[in-house]
Amino acid sequence: MTEKVNLKWNGQDIQAEKGSNLLKAALDNGIEVAHYCYHAGLSIAGVCRMCMVEQDGVPRSFPSCNATCSEGMVVRNDTPKIKAAVESTLQFHLLNHPLDCPVCDQAGECGLQDYYMTHGKYDSQMIDKKVHKEKVQDIGKNVMLDAERCILCSRCTRFTEEVTKTNELGILNRGDHAEITVNENLKNDYAQNLVDICPVGALTSKDFRFKQRVWFLKEVPTTCIGCETGCSVKVSQNKNGSYRVKPVYDHDVNGHWMCDDGRNIYKHVSSPTRLSNASENINNLFVPVDELGVQAKVRGLKAKYILSTGLTVQEYADFFSNIKGSKAEVALYTLPSQGPEFDGILRRGDKNANLRGAKAAFEQAGFDSTQVGLDKVLNSISSNDVVYVVIPEILYNEDHFNTLINKILKAAVRIALTPGETLSTLRAFNYLLPVPSFLEKNGEIINFQGSKRKLTAGLSYGETSKDVSYYGKWVNV
Amino acid sequence: MKETANNKDYALLSYHHIPGVHNLEIFERAGGYETMKACFEKDPEAIKEEVKLSGLRGRGGAGFATGVKWGFFTKDRKAQKYLLCNADESEPGTFKDRYLVEKNPHILIEGMIISAWALATQKGYIYIRGEFYQQAVILERAIKEAYAKGYLGKNILGKGFDFDLYVHRGAGAYICGEETGMISSLEGKKGQPKLKPPFPAIKGYRGLPTMVNNVESLAAIPWIMKFGAAAYKQWGTEKSPGTKLFSISGDVNKPGVIEVPLSTSLKDIIEIHCGGMRNGNKLKAVIPGGSSAPVFNAEDAYTVKMDYEDVAAKGSMLGSGAIIVLDETRNMGDVLKWTLEFYHHESCGQCTPCREGTGWLESVFKRRDKGLAHKADIDLLDRTANSMRGQTICALADAAAMPTQGMIKVFRQELEAYVVAPIKK
Predict the structure, then answer these.
(1) What is the ipTM, given to two decimal places?
(2) B391 in contact with A, Cβ within 8 Å
(3) What would the pLDDT profile of A250-305 be if each residue is shown by its tens digit?
(4) Which of A70, A359, A432, B127 sits between 20 and 30 A of B210, alpha carbons compared?
(5) A58 lies within 8 A of chain B by CB
(6) Which residue, A78, A113, A140, sits at the end of a domain?
């Protein structure tokens, strides 16, 4: 148990851990302190000079990011002296900034814009020529650099130095000619975090830029289904679709970051090729069909289910309660591992988002969730069967999945329940039925630590439903 | 350069009149390294105490008491730590350390060995300005001599004390004269000052305790240990004891380096030591402590005493003791312009107020050169300089802001005339 200390910030009593960061203590207690270079996930640089404070009994003002909390500390950043200093410093930040907000993707969530509202001088005194630097630099991994917009807070260089330890970025030159530069193009698997931590529009995402204005987006907090880590993320959506995924700070799982693979998990959700109606395969063309007609076709056949590891705990429970008492056979398709077991930061080789939840549900219902169980069901498939396959939401290895499909061809009727796009592999099925993607359902998945992670339904697209019992309704036909 | 007659009576240049004193043999014959040997018989704590009593103030520019700074250093004699000599003398107008080590490198080495013994540092570096190539060669040679004599290296004089000394040449950056910038540079990083706290005495070079002292401070140690703190205090004032090297440049008849007791009047320095004003011209202004010190007009210059308190009381600073004398033919606009060009060029670019501010200050003069400046720009300079002060990691922003504001305070009318003056094509 760490010791708590009491301090006063702008006259407000706050509590913080002894020796913890003074700026963080303020931010955690809801006190607004302007800052650019400070980031809780990185080392202290102390260069933006925005978080200056005055402390009783200390002659000089100092940056609060480089101070620690101690008992009885009395600090202020609302004194006339500090306010004037922060205004001037912001003026310096903006001095050589191109002010190209109308064409900048950071607009709306930009540190310079935000603090300008509270600390701006409004009356520009700058009539001299600005220093120009190179714009529109593609530095790899879908990251674009605009050196002119940069305020040299050094968050990005510290990130590549401290978090990924790949050191692709550095600061070249001195004085007002200093600029971020790439030693080599970005090569780490966490590069999109650079876009997140950049407080201005210097680093933008090639994937997101020019697609949407951020004020038209709503953020849905959810969990990444890219691998078994289960990072806390938020997905930016509006009525036209989803546009980006950003990490949400989670002390126990992902900290401040997420990997680049996770940035793509939303793409199938609002993809134009996503299946939106129940469809029948007629000579490899998928034609919309009435679900009732499909139900009529499968009546009397023996049901065999192959579930994916991407359903929620609630969906598994619902499914198994529905098949209770029936003679249906159930197996689990587990995604094969990709890459190393753990890359040392966040990414894990096991791509099954809810393997633990699935296994627990199978065990409780008395079904075999292992490969042996799967093989047994696959080997038993005959022309009296209807096989339902829940297609994994993200298929990293299509070839591996094809070997499974090749084994179900004997079945009389093959039905795919797919939360994603219409893949070419799905031609082996007679019917395709849309099911909700991870962004359209409320529920929980269990990550590698065994902890429950929440999925939240955002906006839904097409005719897919948020109904958790979707899988269950095919059981008793 | 001609030494002033009484230099040999003082602490720092007392050997400089001896021909060939850069050779260890000649230096020893004149009494060099005796103090070092005597100090090995003394308790390190007693040495620290003596230095503290002497009131020696750091000669790099800030004037922080050396003995007090030593007091912050860990007393654990076994712990790994470093002694770092700051010979990156780059402040425009300053050339005292250069003169000191060029003629007598051994006085610095002796001072460093005594300090190393007192502070129990196992390794020392002399970080010397890159442009001082010849001086670095001289130091290297002197260090080699000291190693041959067994004054450096393992088990010095059988005392069971190890001290290795290296010379490291900088690459020509002013900011590496700032102690944490110097440490960054020595570590092989970009020469940028580090955030304080922690101070180098706690966490410095390679994250270990590091004592950084100026050449002149370290070179004063042998004399203080030989004659005692009380003798050192015969010179100067209560708060500024001892002697100080001044490097005088500009419009005087005999520019150069002199050693005089602190609190010597600037008038005496100009008229007696430097042979008066060149061509009999009238004194216009003096920058008393290197280019970052606010300027004095002739009246202040003729009344000020060159010690830390009196210079500060008159609104400037003693700094590194670089006296730049300007006569009536000099235009203060040009002086300020060149000063600001220098600081713009040398800002490391880390902290925003300095990175952007130094550029902004200079850009006013660039605009002036195109005939586009007006009187109100002087206020802009003043405001900009004011908002740079005290806002950055190191003192470079202040070093650019102080002379700007100082110049505006003293020579406002001249600057106003300068910025609107028609440009000669």
Answers:
(1) 0.92
(2) yes
(3) 999 999 999 999 999 999 888 888 888 889 999 988 899 988 888 888 888 999 99
(4) A70
(5) no
(6) A78
